[in-house]
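Recall that a protein's primary structure is simply its ordered list of amino acids. Everything else, from secondary elements to tertiary packing, is in principle encoded there. The following example makes that idea concrete.
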Amino acid sequence: MSLLSVKVSQRYQIAVPTSARKRLNIQKGDRLLVDIQDGMLILLPQPKNYAQAMSGLHSDIWQGVDAQHCVNEERGAWGTSSRD
């Protein structure tokens, strides 16, 4: 990972370096999400379609697992209450 340097302007603006724009396919008019984690400023391209961007996320967790069985177990737990 190579670090890139940007300068903050008098209006607190920065320019996203060309290599970062190309790598993340950031175009004019795109929006970026800003996050702060452990003293770091993180910029992420904002998805144009959140449902599409999250489709298949963490699908590896369900590999080899019978999803219907998990759903049935959860539904069975709904009928159980500590107040009964």
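Residues 36 and 42 are 6 Å apart (CA to CA). The helical segments are 18-24, 50-54, 67-78.
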